[in-house]
Amino acid sequence: MVGWREANGPVLGRDFETTIVPLVSVKEGARYAIAKLLRVQIRGVHVRLYADRFDIPPDTLNPWRLRLDRYDAPNFSYGHTPMSRPTFAQMEPAYQRLAMCSVEELDGYRMWKEAKGGFF
User: Fold this and answer.
1) What are phi and psi of 116, to 5 degrees?
2) Alpha carbon 21 to chain centroid distance?
3) What domain range is 35 assigned to?
4) What are the pLDDT digits (tens) for 58-94?
């Protein structure tokens, strides 16, 4: 740690803006997908759903390997969607691990907030 400070290594919250958020596995039909919880609010959650699909929830998960695909890809993904708590609960979310959430990943959330959007 001392060596990191002496080398002026980047510090979370000082040198780059990011937060730590949970990754969860969610049911997608008969398979599982990975969702990042971007924001949690009283009325709902804001989710990023990755294109990766699994037959069973993964034992280990590398957040750097998760990918987003085009809307017309076989395994759809989306960068941001607001979901009501009941809708999200139907997906049977299960905690997987923590991951970083960059400022750019929250662009959709900020647009939703400015537009005073609702939840699905």
Assistant:
1) 55, 50
2) 7
3) 20-114
4) 999 999 899 998 777 777 888 899 999 999 999 999 9
Does this model's pTM top 0.85? no
User: Tokens for 44?
Assistant: 């709902």
Sorted by sequence, the CB contacts under 8 Å of residue 25 that are 6+ apart come out as 32, 33, 34, 35, 54, 57, 58, 93, 94, 96
Contacts of 2 (CB under 8 A, 6+ apart): none
Residue 91: phi and psi, rounded to 5, are -85, 0
> Which amino acid, one-letter code, is at 43?
R
**What distance in Å separates the CA atoms of residue 104 and residue 120, rounded to the nearest whole number?**
22
Question: What's the number of domains the chain is made of?
Answer: 1
Q: Are 79 and 48 in contact (CB under 8 A)?
A: yes
